[in-house]
Specification:
Largest sheet: 5 strands, antiparallel
Order of helices and strands: HHHEEEEEHEEEE
Strand order of the largest sheet: 1-4-5-7-6
Strand content: 15-25%
């Protein structure tokens, strides 16, 4: 082979390589799409999004829990040295005490003397009706300055009464013997206008009342026997005390107030 023949194939190959290296625009590889990422890039870009979503959803609840759990307990009974003024507190306390102090009970019409109703001396028993007027209930309550005993009667008919102290042991046979050694005084209530007989005795309140405390000033309340148009109630006390008696209607009641002093 001559040198010229060897040169021709070599030149052809070199020309072909040169052409392929230059190429045409159609043969160029496409540029990367900015919206497309590799798997590694996708993971890196997704992590911030997931972290942001997790933070957005967790922050309110975790922050609230932290605030509730970490806030110091409020000492409602404590004092604030910056705002509390001892002199002001004492003055306010004194004023509040004066305002809240209950008014003293008016006991000017209480006494230890016999107290009859206005019509007791000339009370006329009405026997024209066929009714049973008897004691139906005994109640006791405490008020400012006195104890109140209420004797309630069954019918709305007229009654008269008298209340007076008697010596212990002079209550008569209509009452059972008082066994309480703390009894030092007995207040007897005479009531006119009640009815007697088997029907009345069956309907009348007959149960005696006794206190639950040994320190009570009212030691016993005991209904007596019914005798014609008269009945009695015996109130045993720890000592003689001032009292007041009133008669009320609707329903008919005899109210005995006994002073604490």
């Amino acid at each position: 082979m001559s040198p010229r023949d060897a040169f021709l194939p070599t030149a052809a190959i070199a020309a072909a390589l040169a052409l392929s290296s230059c190429g045409s625009p159609e043969d160029e590889l496409p540029q990367d799409d900015p919206t497309q990422h590799s798997a590694g890039q996708a993971e890196e870009s997704a992590e911030p999004t997931e972290s942001t979503e997790a933070d957005d959803s967790a922050e309110p609840s975790s922050g609230a829990d932290a605030d509730e759990s970490e806030q110091p307990a409020v000492d409602e009974g404590g004092s604030d040295p910056e705002t509390d003024d001892p002199d002001t507190d004492e003055a306010d306390t004194d004023e509040a005490s004066e305002e809240e102090a209950p008014e003293a009970a008016d006991l000017s019409d209480f006494s230890t003397q016999p107290q009859p109703s206005e019509d007791y001396a000339d009370f006329m028993l009405d026997v024209s009706h066929d009714t049973v007027q008897v004691l139906s209930e005994i109640r006791l309550g405490s008020h400012a300055g006195y104890e109140r005993i209420v004797l309630e009667y069954a019918l709305d008919t007229g009654l008269a009464h008298q209340a007076q102290y008697i010596e212990p042991g002079e209550q008569g046979t209509g009452f059972t013997e008082v066994q309480d050694g703390a009894v030092e005084a007995m207040l007897l209530i005479d009531v006119l206008g009640t009815t007697g007989g088997p029907d009345a005795e069956a309907a009348a309140w007959s149960e005696a009342w006794s206190p639950e405390s040994d320190a009570a000033m009212v030691r016993e309340i005991q209904p007596g026997e019914l005798a014609g148009g008269e009945s009695q109630v015996l109130i045993s006390l720890d000592q003689q005390r001032d009292f007041r008696v009133q008669q009320l209607t609707d329903p008919v009641r005899i109210v005995v107030d006994i002073a604490h002093r």
